[in-house]
Amino acid sequence: MDDAVDELELAGGNTTGVVRIGDTVHREAGPWTPTVQRLLAHVRAAGMTEVPEPLGLDGQGREIVSYLPGDVPGWPAPAWLWSEGVLAEAGRLLRRFHDATAGFPRADAVWRLPATEPAEVICHNDAAPYNMVFRDGRLAGLFDLDTASPGPRVRDLAYLAYRIAPFSSDAFAGATYDIGHVDPIARLDTLTEAYGAPFRRAEVLDAMAGRLRDLAAWSEARADADGPPELREHAAMYRADADRIAALVSQPERPDRETNI
After folding, report:
1. What's the predicted TM-score (pTM) here?
2. Residue 95 pLDDT greater than 50, yes or no
3. Is 251 within the bounds of a domain?
4. Residues 182 and 240 in one domain
């Protein structure tokens, strides 16, 4: 009798060694895995069912979560990713995720990334299209919470804006379509409004620059520890983007927006 199990390797984001087995996803576990599994259970219990269901560990000690069916944008990103609808959906989904983390027990939590003050919520820390699932061009899921840790809402929102407004210099690399003029500043305002917080544009941009500098340092440290060599190229891009974004902080603000935070 053949007990072999078909494993389909999944690509995307910055993860490796992630496989799909039927309706489940298996990935290398770490000291933070029990915390992430508890976090997934907590936010799902709070009504945030767009994240995977935690299913423990397999016989090889790998983490198991449910598979979220749908499309994960590759690179270059598809043209539909830059629609106003997707932008607003992303802001609302991140807000729901943050709100669902309220009350999560942190006393015995182990995080892969350090907490950032003020630790208002549990941040995803890599909320971006490559960690999102879409169905028929609509946002339907958020996954890969391995780097989650306590932090300020604006820091998570800022990185999402970096990837989906977008402010990243590689956002349209390799694209063969023409979507016309894209105004990241205007899209940042739309994203912030969808999130529903009173963040000033300058506050989000400043958080974005800071997040990118931290990410550059983290990428270089991983490269130094025998990580993928291309991480050094990523770090250089993050630093250059951070400098460019920091120069935008002084741009005029839009009038105050209502908030329900």
Report:
1. 0.91
2. yes
3. no
4. yes
CB 96 within 8 A of CB 48: yes
Question: What is the spatial distance between Cα 165 and Cα 96, in angstroms, rounded to a whole number?
Answer: 19
DSSP, residue by residue, 174-232: T---------HHHHHHHHHHHHT----HHHHHHHHHHHHHHHHHHHHHHHHTT--THHH
Contact criterion met (CB below 8 Å) for 60 and 27: no
**Per-residue pLDDT, 119:** 97
Question: Is residue 213 in some structural domain?
Answer: yes
- In this structure, are 36 and 149 located in the same domain? no
Contact predicate 167/160, CB 8 Å? no
Tell me which residue range forms the domain holding 134.
79-246
Report the C-alpha gap between 72 and 76 in whole angstroms. Answer: 12
- For residue 193, is pLDDT > 50? yes
Distance, in Å, from the CA atom of 130 to the CA atom of 127, rounded to the nearest integer, reads 8
One domain for residues 110 and 236: yes
d(Cα 129, Cα 13) in Å, to the nearest integer?
9
